[in-house]
Each structure stands twice: as structure tokens, then as C-alpha cells.
Specification:
The chain is mostly helical. The protein has 3 helices and no strands. Keywords: Membrane, Signal, Transmembrane, Transmembrane helix.
């Protein structure tokens, strides 16, 4: 079942990836460089996915730290008092 889901995700990704190559504003004669770094920080088309990835990464990192902290607390709770330090 997982292979079918993976194949469907890959198929959707491949069919919709052509929509990601350009959006209005690329290739026009703008005063700012449409391929410059400022373009990627000011256009919502680029900024929203970057923010979503950063939020996901932060959630994963914080979740791992909280999980590790709760495991340490459980280990302290199960140790006898003379072995706790």
C-alpha cells in the first residue's frame, strides 16, 4: 500500500512541477532583478513555501527536544532515589 501512495505522490509532483518553474514577473523588464536574491525574499510565491519549510523544520527540532526531555524525566522518575544524581 505504501508503494502505491508513493507512486501517486510522485505522479502528482511530476505533473504539477511545470507550474513551479515561473510565475508572472519573471523575464520582464523590471527595475529590480527578477533573478536576484531580493526577488525571492519579497515575492509571496517564493516566501510562503520557504516559511512553511522553516516552520516544519522548527517544529521537528522542538518536538525532538521535548521528546528527549520527557524521556529523561521518565528515566529519573523510574530510578531509585539513591541512583539519582
Amino acid at each position: 500500500m505504501n508503494r502505491i501512495k508513493l507512486a501517486l505522490v510522485m505522479l502528482v509532483t511530476l505533473t504539477h512541477s511545470s507550474l513551479l518553474f515561473a510565475h508572472p514577473g519573471h523575464g520582464t523588464s523590471q527595475t529590480t532583478n527578477p533573478h536576484g536574491i531580493l526577488h525571492y525574499f519579497t515575492e509571496p510565491v517564493h516566501l510562503i513555501p520557504f516559511a512553511a519549510i522553516a516552520l516544519f523544520a522548527a517544529t521537528v527540532v522542538i518536538g525532538k527536544k521535548l521528546l528527549q526531555r520527557s524521556r529523561v524525566q521518565k528515566q529519573k522518575a523510574t530510578l531509585p532515589p539513591e541512583r539519582r544524581k
